[in-house]
Amino acid sequence: MPIWSEIQRGVLDALDEPALVVEGHILVAANGPARDLLGGAIEGRDIRLAIRHPQALEQILAHRSAEIDVTGIGELGRSWRMVIRALGKDSALVRLIDRSESVSAERMRVDFVANASHELRTPLSTVLGYAETLAEEEDLPLELRWNFGRTMREEARRMLRIIEDLMSLSRIEADRFIAPNDRVQIDEIVSSAVANVSAMRAGRDCPVNVHIPADLPPVRGDGAQLVQVFDNLLANAVRYGCEGSNSKVDVTAVRSGRWITVTVRDQGPGIPREHLPRVTERFYRVDAARSRESGGTGLGLAIVKHIVERHRGSLEIKSTVGVGTSVSVRLPLAL
Ligand code: ADP
After folding, report:
1. 20 φ, ψ (degrees, to nearest 5)
2. pTM, rounded to two decimals
3. Which of 41, 120, 302, 323 has its CA 20 to 30 A from that of 144?
4. 301 C-beta closer than 6 A to ligand 1
5. C-beta pairs of 283-287 under 8 Å, 24+ apart in sequence
6. Looking at ligand 1, which residue's alpha carbon is closest to its atom 21?
7. Tell me: the pLDDT tens digits for 56-93?
8. CA-to-CA distance for 262 and 250, rounded, in angstroms?
9. Residue 86, beta-bridge partner list
10. Strand, coil or helix: what is 244?
11. Would the CB of 324 count as within 6 Å of ligand 1?
C-alpha cells in the first residue's frame, strides 16, 4: 500500500464532496465525507466492499476517466454524479457530487409542465369540440347555440384563471429573494379581500365576520400580494365552507411579540388528515370535481405559500373532517 503524504491527504480532505483514491481494487484513501457516506473503516479494503453499484464499479476498476450518474449509494433516493479521474496506470480518484436536489427540482419541473398542460388541455378540448360543431352544423337550434356559447365562455374563463394564477406564481417566484418592505395595515388588507369575495358569496347565507383589533400595528409586506393571500383563503372558505345553512367564516388577527397571526376559519367539510401535507402543492386537489365546478384552479394555496415565504412568515393549516378548516398566516411586524 503506498504511503500517503500529508499533502496528498490534505488535498483529499480539502474537497467538500466525498472523494476517494483507488489503486488496483484497493481503496487506499478516503476523505471525511466519503467515510461518513461509505463507512468509517473503508481505507485499505477492497473497493467492492464500499461501492456495490455494478456499473460504477466497472468504471472505477477500469481506472479510466469517466463520469456516470448513480443512485443507491448512501441513503435511498440520493442521486450522485460519480466523477472518475485516472491518476496513473492502475489508480483513480473518485469524487461523488450530490445531485439529489437538482434531480428532484428537475422532476418537479417536469411534473409541473405535465400538470399545467393537462389542466389547460381539458377546457381547450371542450371549447374546440363546441366550436367545431358550431362551425359545421348549419341547422342547430338557437337554444343549443346559446348553450354551447355559454359553455365555451365558462371553459375559456377557466383557462384564463389558470393562466393568471400561473403568471402570478412565476412573478412571486421571481421576486422571492427581494423581501417586501411596505408598512401594511392588516385590517385594510382583509377588508379588500372580503369585498373581493362578495360576488362569490351572493345567494349564500354565509357571513364573513372580521375580528381585528383597531390598534394593531402594521406588518412588513407587499400590500397587493397580501390581498392575494386573503382573497385565496377567503375564496376557499366560501367555496368549500359555505355549503350548509347557518355556516359562517371568521377572520381573526392577534399580535404576539413581533408577529401578527391572521386566521381564516370556516365550518366546512374539512380536509382529511392524509391530504393536509399536500394541499399547498400546485394543482393538488382533495375533490377535483368540486374544485373545478366552483371555479378553483388548484393553485390558490400554492400562491399563498409562496407569498408567505417571500414575507419570511409562516403558514399553518389545521382541519378536522366534519368540523371545519382554519388557515393561519403569521407575518412580521413592521418595526
Ligand atoms: P383550489 O383552487 O382547488 O381551491 P387550492 O390550492 O386553493 O386550490 O386548494 C387545494 C385543495 O385544498 C382544494 O382543491 C380543496 O380540495 C382543499 N381545500 C382548500 N381549502 C379548503 C377549505 N377551506 N376547506 C376544505 N378543503 C379545502
Report:
1. -150, 160
2. 0.79
3. 120
4. yes
5. 283/115, 283/116, 283/119
6. 236
7. 899 999 998 999 999 888 877 789 999 999 998 899 99
8. 10
9. 92
10. coil
11. no
Question: Residue of the nearest CA to atom 7 in ligand 1?
Answer: 300
Superfamily of domain 6-98: PAS domain (3.30.450.20)
Name residue, grid cell 456495490.
52
Which residues of the chain does CATH 3.30.450.20 include?
A: 6-98
CATH number for region 179-335: 3.30.565.10
Residues 6+ positions from 83 with CB-CB distance below 8 Å: 67, 94, 95, 96, 97
CATH dotted code for 100-174: 1.10.287.130
- Count Cα neighbours of 51 within 13 Å in the Cβ-side half-sphere: 29
CA distance 76 to 78: 6
- Distance in Å, CA 271 to ligand 1 centroid: 8
Residue 271's SS3 state is coil
The answer to whether 80 and 34 have CB atoms below 8 angstroms apart is no
Q: Which of 155, 147, 154 is nearest to 123 (CA)?
A: 155
Tell me the pLDDT tens digit for each residue of 5-48: 788 888 999 999 999 999 999 999 999 999 999 988 899 999 99
Nearest to 310 by CA among 239, 229, 252, 254: 229
Per residue in 93-147, pLDDT tens?
999 999 988 888 888 889 999 999 999 999 999 999 999 999 999 999 999 999 9
Q: What is the dihedral of CA 245, 328, 191, 168, to 10 degrees?
A: -110
CB atoms within 10 A of CB 186: 23
Three cell numbers written together for 129: 369540440
How far apart (Å, rounded) are the C-alpha atoms in residues 68 and 59?
Answer: 8
**Kindly report the CA angle at 58 between 57 and 59, in degrees rounded to 5?**
90
